[in-house]
Amino acid sequence: MAEWIDYHRKIEVKKFYIYDNDSTIPAKETLASLIREKVVVVEKMAGRIKQLETYVHCLKHYGKKTQWMIFKKLKLLPDLFIAENINCHIKSFTDQYFISKWTIQNS
Q1: How many Å apart are CA 45 and CA 101, to the nearest integer?
Q2: Helices and strands per DSSP (H, E), number in the chain
Q3: Who's near 4: CB < 8 A, 6+ residues apart?
Q4: Are strands 16-20 and 99-100 parallel, antiparallel or unpaired?
Q5: Which of 13, 56, 81, 82 is deepest in the core (most CB within 10 A)?
Q6: pLDDT given at position 86
């Protein structure tokens, strides 16, 4: 996971919100140095079938802090490819992943 984050930092991703769903080695341990640098935020989301709940939590708590947000399951990561910057990276995902550029409105 640290290598994946390092790669994406090189293509200008600034912040990572990681939801840990009962990892054998907790993400807070694995990513401790990046948490201290305030590059990564780790949230614990224990239990089964938490994907929608995770999206809602992330959007509610961190949505106003970002212009773009990509939701991606780390277990399903393809091999890394070379991208010059995050805009190239985002374009490559538009057909395969849910990408959100959005604004929260009060109801």
Answers
A1: 24
A2: 5, 4
A3: 74, 77, 80
A4: unpaired
A5: 13
A6: 54
Cα gap 10→76, rounded to integer Å: 21
- The pairing of strands 99-100 and 69-70 is antiparallel
What residue type is 31 in one-letter code? Answer: L
> Which residue spans within 1-107 are E strands per DSSP?
16-20, 40-44, 69-70, 99-100
